[in-house]
């Protein structure tokens, strides 16, 4: 079952369970998926990798919003954002640990033959593609800087 089909089934389940936060979060993901489909003319269904990319972006947006709300003392809104993160992050692949990211970056650095910070762009390009959806870009960037720096 594709991720889009799973998303549709989970929306129905959330409606039946009367779970408004999960339902709202899943509908937001579905909206983004539909917009991505219409942006790419002639596509009936997005690949799971594209859907994962959309969900990763949405999780990052919600984390930023939750941090901002918490900073401003709006704990009610921060909690809502965190609940939505929990609802949609279940569709993401398991996240890599810092050690796993570092090991993957070391392997990429050796493969590319990178020796200095001038090669960071090459390493980041490959690392971002290989770890898409599995690690945050900030964590990948920090690992690359630590190894090349």
Please write out the topology.
Elements: H1 3-17, H2 20-39, H3 48-71, H4 75-88, H5 98-112, H6 120-130, H7 137-148
Structure characterization notes:
Helices cover 74% and strands 0% of the residues. It is mostly helical and 149 residues long. It folds into two domains: 3-91, Uncharacterised protein YqeY/AIM41, N-terminal domain (Hypothetical Protein Yqey, Chain: A, domain1, Orthogonal Bundle); 98-148, Arc Repressor Mutant, subunit A (Orthogonal Bundle), CATH 1.10.10.410. The chain starts with a helix and ends with a helix. The model has no long low-confidence stretch (mean pLDDT 88).
What's this model, at a glance?
This protein is mainly alpha-helical and 149 residues long. The chain is built from 7 helices and no strands. The chain has helices at residues 3-17, 20-39, 48-71, 75-88, 98-112, 120-130, 137-148.
Q: Which labels suit this protein?
A:
mainly alpha, 2 domains, 149 residues, Arc Repressor Mutant, subunit A, Hypothetical Protein Yqey, Chain: A, domain1, single chain
Low-confidence stretches: none
Write the element-wise H/E pattern from the N-terminal end onward.
HHHHHHH
Work out the count of structural domains: 2
The averaged pLDDT comes out at 88
Strand content: under 5%
Q: Major sheet: size, sense and barrel closure?
A: none
Per CATH, which architecture of the largest domain? Orthogonal Bundle
Distance from N terminus to C terminus (CA atoms, Å) equals 43 Å
- Name the CATH superfamily classification of the largest domain: Uncharacterised protein YqeY/AIM41, N-terminal domain
**What fold name goes in the CATH topology slot of the largest domain?**
Hypothetical Protein Yqey, Chain: A, domain1
* Helicity, as a percent range: over 70%
Radius of gyration: 18 Å
Q: SS-based structural class? A: mainly alpha
Q: Could you say which overall geometry the principal axes of the C-alpha atoms support?
A: globular
Tell me the number of helical segments per DSSP (H or I, 4 or more residues long). Answer: 7
Oligomeric assembly:
single chain
Q: What is the name of the CATH class of the largest domain?
A: Mainly Alpha
**Number of separate strands:** 0
């Amino acid at each position: 079952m594709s991720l889009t089909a799973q998303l549709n089934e989970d929306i129905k389940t959330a409606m039946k369970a009367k779970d408004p936060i999960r339902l709202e979060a899943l509908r937001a993901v579905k909206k983004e998926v539909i917009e991505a489909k219409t942006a790419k003319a002639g596509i009936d269904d997005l690949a799971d990798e594209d859907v994962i990319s959309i969900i990763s972006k949405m999780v990052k947006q919600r984390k930023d919003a939750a941090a901002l709300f918490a900073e401003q003392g709006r704990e009610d809104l921060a909690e809502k954002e965190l609940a939505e993160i929990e609802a949609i992050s279940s569709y993401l692949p398991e996240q890599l640990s810092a050690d796993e990211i570092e090991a993957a970056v070391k392997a990429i650095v050796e493969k590319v033959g990178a020796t200095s910070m001038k090669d960071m762009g090459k390493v980041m390009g490959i690392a971002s593609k290989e770890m898409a959806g599995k690690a945050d870009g900030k964590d990948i960037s920090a690992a690359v800087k630590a190894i090349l720096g």
